[in-house]
């Protein structure tokens, strides 16, 4: 790869990052409009949510969520004896399944 190709690839990457940021802002506005998240939390999507909150966001049962978790589709963490999911991971999953 020569220098010209490298800089062209870098410019393309910068454009893709700009597009992703614009898409993220549109998604956040949609979520705020549907009241899935409040405007105060739109910048703090890294908060951990419970199994019940996750089921509400996904409109699924705890058994279905357990299956999704076991398949490794949505990352989770165990805090002492409770399972927690990052809100952003759940919303990304919702975006993937359309």
Structural features, described:
- This protein is mainly alpha-helical and about 100 residues long.
- It is about 60% helix and about 10% strand.
- The protein contains four helices and three strands.
- It has a three-stranded antiparallel sheet.
- Strand 2 and strand 3 form a beta hairpin.
- The longest helix has about 30 residues.
- It is elongated and about 55 Å long.
- About 5% of the residues are buried.
- Report the average pLDDT across residues: 82
Binned strand content = 5-15%
Q: Count the DSSP helices.
A: 4
Spans where pLDDT lies below 50 across 5 or more residues: none
- Helix and strand composition category: mainly alpha
Question: How is the secondary structure organized here?
Answer:
Blueprint: H1 3-33, E1 48-49, H2 51-58, H3 62-70, E2 77-79, E3 82-86, H4 87-97
Antiparallel strand pairs: 1-3, 2-3
Features:
98 residues, mainly alpha, 3 strands
At a glance:
With 98 residues, this protein is mainly alpha-helical. It has helices spanning 3-33, 51-58, 62-70, 87-97; strands at 48-49, 77-79, 82-86.
